[in-house]
Structures are given as structure tokens and as C-alpha cells.
Specification:
By secondary structure, this protein is an alpha/beta fold. It has a single domain, classed as Alpha/Beta hydrolase fold, catalytic domain (Rossmann fold, 3-Layer(aba) Sandwich). It is 31% helix and 20% strand. The chain contains 8 helices and 8 strands, in the order E-E-E-H-E-H-H-E-H-E-H-H-E-H-E-H. Strands 1-2-4-3-5-6-7-8 form an 8-stranded mixed sheet, with helices on both faces. It is globular and about 55 Å long. It starts with a strand and ends with a helix.
């Protein structure tokens, strides 16, 4: 496959992204899919944490873009100076990423221009944890209105009820002292965690398709966090499916790659 380095604009800065285009002479044997995947990572992580997602999909003929969230230093040294702006606009990077992927696709495959028309192209917006939540918000962008689209959200669910959440344990708090130094100061846990909790409870999406994937061993989401989140999405008239792999701890999202690919194959998007 071909990998292209590029940048997405974020206010007066840039954030890094990688495009993965299928190799028409390889496994796909010229079968370029009318499917784009737009993906991003979780809180304090970077695009390398889910690098094998686009690799597996590009091997199957899907063109992908994987981008770093602003203010996440493992991915790039851009800063988030305004937390309110980040809360209200970070999900719009999915559309910026889509435009960059579309341009790269057309440059590489000019004879496949018909595949990127809105009545042909299928869009997968996906991510892990924070990235998953942002992908859900991106589904409602008016720019995506005319496309067939869905979100694949890995490691996302409601916080456990009536138990001490892992975020509140002394061990996890001690690790956050390091991790919070890997993001812009305004993205500190004391800002981000309450926002994510509120966003999941009040997220305004409806009439869209969502596939949730959370491991049995995901201690951040907890035993029934994914199921309760699924119920809240279904109540808003979304089409929701889910799966629960035995081994997919929150800190190893790369293990979801096979499940992402399997789901897209099951619904005939591969």
C-alpha cells in the first residue's frame, strides 16, 4: 500500500495525519472499495496506538486516513489553547481528514473518480475512547449528510455505577501525573474527564449507525458500560450493534483491528 504524510489545519496550527491507499497490484488485485475510513486515537495517545487498523483495511481495498488529535504530544507538538473551542470543534477534524483523503485518493486513482460520489461512497468514522466519542459527534456534521456512514467506536461506554471507577483509584491517579504532561495543559484530566462524561450522557446524535466494540477486560469502560451506552444511543433512534471480545484491554486498542475488519466485511462494506 501507499502511505502519504500530510497535515490537517487546526486553528493557526497543524496536526499530523497519514493516508493509507490500497495497492492495486497487491492483495486487493484492483478491487478498490467505495469505502473510506477516517480514524483517530484516544486520550493522551497518538495515531500509532491504532496504526494496524488502517493497515488491515487498506489491505482489503479501503482507503484510510489516521490523524493525531491536537494537543497530544506523542503525535505532534501542537497546542490546544482554548478548551471550549476543542470541545465544540475537534470532531470537525473528521471532515478535514475526509477532504484530504479524497484528494489523495483522486490523485492516486483518477479513473476511480466515480467512487467518491456521495451516492457511492461509504464512510467509516472511527476511533478509540476519546477518538470514538468524537467520531460519533462527527456523524452529525452537515457535510456528511448525503453519505452512507457509520461509526465504529472502540473502548467507549458509560462509567460504572455504584463502584469506585478506575479513574478514582490511587494507582490510576498516579499514572495520570505522567500522562497529563503528554497533552496540552488545558487538556488535563480534570478538564477532559468531566467533559467526556457529560458528552456521553447528552450526546446529540440520532438516526445513525453505530457499532460498539469493548473488551471484557476493559477496566475503563467496565462490566456493563458499553451496554448502558448502547441503550442510551438506541433510545435516540440510532441503529446500534456491539461486540465484546475476550481480550481487548483499554490500553491495547490495536487488538481491535481484526474486529473492525470483520464487522465491515459482515455488512458488505469490504
Amino acid at each position: 500500500m501507499k502511505v502519504i504524510k500530510l497535515f490537517l489545519n487546526y486553528q493557526n496550527q497543524k496536526t499530523n495525519a497519514l493516508v493509507f491507499l490500497p495497492d492495486v497490484g497487491g492483495e486487493t488485485r484492483g478491487d478498490i472499495k467505495a469505502t473510506f475510513a477516517i480514524l483517530t486515537h484516544g486520550y493522551t495517545a497518538d495515531k500509532s496506538s491504532i496504526l494496524n487498523w488502517p493497515i488491515r483495511l487498506a489491505e482489503a481495498g479501503v482507503s484510510c486516513i489516521l490523524f493525531d488529535l491536537p494537543g497530544h504530544y506523542l503525535g505532534n507538538y501542537s497546542e490546544v489553547e482554548d478548551f471550549e473551542y476543542f470541545k465544540n470543534h475537534a470532531h470537525e477534524l473528521f471532515y478535514s481528514a475526509f477532504l484530504s483523503l479524497k484528494n489523495a485518493f483522486l490523485e492516486e486513482f483518477p479513473l476511480h473518480e466515480h467512487l467518491v460520489e456521495s451516492d457511492q461512497l461509504k464512510l467509516v468514522l472511527g476511533g478509540h475512547s476519546l477518538g470514538a466519542m468524537l467520531s460519533l459527534k462527527a456523524l452529525m456534521l452537515p457535510e456528511f449528510k448525503e453519505f452512507q456512514k457509520l461509526s465504529i467506536a472502540v473502548g467507549l461506554g458509560m462509567a460504572p455505577k455504584d463502584v469506585v471507577h478506575i479513574f478514582d483509584t490511587p494507582f490510576y491517579k498516579s499514572t495520570l501525573k505522567i500522562r497529563e504532561q503528554l497533552v496540552s495543559p488545558v487538556l488535563k484530566p480534570d478538564n477532559v474527564f468531566p467533559w467526556i462524561k457529560e458528552e456521553k450522557q447528552a450526546i446529540d446524535i440520532h438516526d445513525v449507525t453505530v457499532h460498539l466494540i469493548t473488551g471484557v477486560d476493559d477496566l475503563v469502560v467496565g462490566a456493563d458500560g458499553m451496554e448502558r451506552f448502547a441503550d442510551s444511543l438506541i433510545a435516540k433512534k440510532n441503529a446500534v450493534t456491539s461486540e465484546k471480545p475476550t481480550k481487548l484491554p483499554h490500553h491495547e486498542p490495536q487488538l481491535a483491528a481484526a474486529h473492525v475488519k470483520k464487522y465491515l466485511k459482515k455488512i458488505n462494506w469490504l
